[in-house]
Each structure stands twice: as C-alpha cells, then as structure tokens.
Amino acid sequence: MQFIDLNQQYRKIEEDMNGRIHKVLEHQHFIMGPEIQEMEKKLAAFTGRKYAFSCSSGTDALIIPLMAMELSKTDAVFVPSFTFFSSGECVALVGATPVFVDCDETYNISPEKLREAIKKVKEEGKLTPKGIIPVDLFGLPADYDEILSIAEEYHLFVLEDAAQGFGGEYKGKKAGSFGEVSTTSFFPAKPLGCYGDGGAIFTDDDDLADKIHSIRVHGQGTSRYDNIRIGLNARMDTIQAAVILSKLEIFEEEIRQRQKIAKQYSEELQGCFRLPVIPDDCLSAWAQFTLQAKDEEQRNFIIQKMKEFDIPIMVYYILPLHMQTAFKYLNYNEKDLPVCAEFCKKVFSVPMHPYLSEDDVSFICDKLKSCI
Ligand SMILES: *Cc1c(COP(=O)(O)O)cnc(C)c1O
User: Fold this and answer.
1) What's the gap in Å between 59 CA and the centre of ligand 1?
2) CA 116 and chain centroid, separation
C-alpha cells in the first residue's frame, strides 16, 4: 500500500495529461509558455484572488513576498512551531527573525498564544512585530477571523501558507484567499501537486503583485534589460503548468472524495485514537489524516506493527520548528511551546489520498485497532 497513490490518479486522467504535456513538447515554450498564463488565470479564479503567480516551489512562494516586504533582523514574523520547516525558514532566509507560536487542538496556530507572543515581543522591545504566517496545517485553514483581527489590531501583515490547505475552506472562503498574500505548493504529494517542484502566490494588492512579478524573474523592471531590484529565478516550468491544468479538472471531485474518506476514518476510529478536530464552518483539504497515540512508545509500536501489514505510517512532525538545529540561535526550550512539543511525540498520519477504497480504509482501521 502507498501513503499517497499518484499512480491511480494518473491512470484516471492519463489521456488528458499526456495530451497537455505533448502539446508543450510541440510548441516548445518551456519557460512561461501559454499553459502558465492559463493556469494562473484558473488559480486566481479558484481562490477568488485578483492575482495568481506561479513559481518554482512552495518555499520560493513564501520567500518572494517576504523579499518584497524588505524586512530586517529586528523585524519579528510570527510562525507556528508545528509545521514544515519552510514556514519558518523563509523568514530567516530573508533576514528577519521568526518568533514561534504554539498550536491549539486543531494543530493550527493558537490565536490566543499568538496574541501573547506579540505582546511579549512588544514588551521586550528588541524586535518589532511585522507579520504573521498562519499555516493551514494538514489541510485545515487556520482561524482567520481571529488571526486577521489580531493582525489589524497590531498592524501586522498576514501571509497564509496554504501549501497543505489548498482546496480547503474557512467560512465559505477558499484557502489561498486570506491575508495580504497567500501561497501554496505543488510538490507532488500536496493536495494539488505537479510532477516536480512548483508553487503559487496569491494576492489582491496591486503594489505587492508588481513586486512579486519582478522578484520572480531577477528583479526585472518594465523592460527586460532593466533590473530594478535583486530577485530570483523562480519561475514554474510550462510542463508543470500542463500537469496542474490536467489535475485541476478533477480537483474539486478529489476534495469531495477526501471528505468521504476522512469521514469513514473518523467513524471507524472513534474512541480508539484522538481524531482530527475540524471546526463546523471549515472544510479541510485533508492533506494528511493525523491521529494521536497515547504516548511515544505506543506510536512506535503502531508504526512497527503497521509496517508488518504493509501500511505506511508517517510522522508529521517529529520535531517542532523551535527545536530544529538551524534555529538553535533563537534559544528556545522545548517547554516554551508545550502543546506542539507534546503533539510531536504522539501524532502519526495514515494513508490519505482520493483513491483509497472503502475496503482500504476499513483494512487500515482494523489493523490500527488491533494495535491497541
Ligand atoms: C510543503 C510545504 C511547504 C514548501 O513547499 P515546497 O514546494 O516543498 O517548497 C511550505 N509550507 C508547508 C506548510 C508545506 O507543507
């Protein structure tokens, strides 16, 4: 069994996919070809944003708008500690200081702890609060009503990291539509993935859009021979846009399928493990279906046992950002953010993709239950 089965998806759309890739091979516009524009238009419409810019990865999608914001070392950007490394890495890479925040029972950044962290930074007076990067972890959009109101109160920008949340919804609004700017990743294993690296940036802000457009290609000005700032080479390949266009045709159907699978998991595992907590007015894109064992020992036992049944189990995440070696210079202690530190010892994710059959899910649930 595979953790994420991309082959079944390919078989379903093989003809359309091959046709679109072949078209690129024929027209040979490998860089910024017509598929890029077509995809960006569709992505903007999907999220309801004025602008969508494709780029080379979900990580570059985070770096580009942060570069546009011209932050300095004394600028603080608040990031959840329970996330993929990129969400914090991008802040340090552009020369600002990440301030890590604990999560709540949804696994997303806790608005309450966010407010406390902002107050603490202001009181200490060494850093200036500048922005927040909420992450839509495991597919669930963060609590944007709370986060956006805190951002307004303290005059902070919000950069939504929707790498896992793309396709999800919060109070009827799509992930990728929150804050000044949102980003996603098209890494193959994400809910909407291409066949290599890729990503996208979404905004409604004209000025920010201009800068993002420029930074994506070497800080270009209005003429391609005039470079007006230091930028990157961070374009997405035309062939990868063809892949996304093909997958977009079935994306909403896949998101619906993920809801059914998540529901079956929840029903069958009720009372056996701590289940994902999805607030009433939210739709998760179910990038992961994450459970909790009662402790680290039980988790290790489950992983080992499931291996014997050929069921892959992954641990997202085993180490929170505040305990990563690269962030040692920030001097965090594990207990500074106790909720996520505890989750890191207990969480495990089970196979999750739209092509799991009812029998697959039942089989996985039966075997999981046999572990406890
Ligand atoms: C995958 C991921 C990224 C980075 O995306 P890449 O395309 O792999 O660079 C950033 N943030 C989160 C939350 C992710 O899951």
Assistant:
1) 6
2) 24
Distance 190 CA to ligand 1 centre (A): 8
Residue 224: the pLDDT is: 75
Which neighbouring-strand residues pair with 251? none
Model pTM score: 0.98
How many helices and strands in the chain, by DSSP H and E?
11, 12
Among 54, 135, 190, say which to mutate for ligand 1: greatest number of ligand atoms within 8 Å of CB.
190
Please report, rounded to a whole number, the percentage of residues in the chain having pLDDT higher than 70: 100
pLDDT grade, residue 225 (50/70/90)? confident
Q: Write out 198-246 in H/E/C secondary structure.
A: CEEEEECCHHHHHHHHHHHECCECCCCCCECCCCCECCCEHHHHHHHHH
Q: Which residues contact 276 (CB under 8 A, 6 or more apart)?
A: 107, 138, 140, 262, 266, 284, 289, 290, 291
Which numbered atom of ligand 1 lies nearest the CA of 190?
A: 1
Residue owning tokens 């969508």 = 52
Q: Give the model's confidence band at 291: pLDDT under 50 very low, under 70 low, under 90 confident, else very high.
A: very high
Q: Closest Cα to residue 103, out of 273, 290, 344, 280?
A: 344
CA pair distance 58, 185, nearest whole angstrom = 4
* Whether pLDDT at 324 is above 80: yes
User: Is the pLDDT reported for residue 85 higher than 80?
Assistant: yes
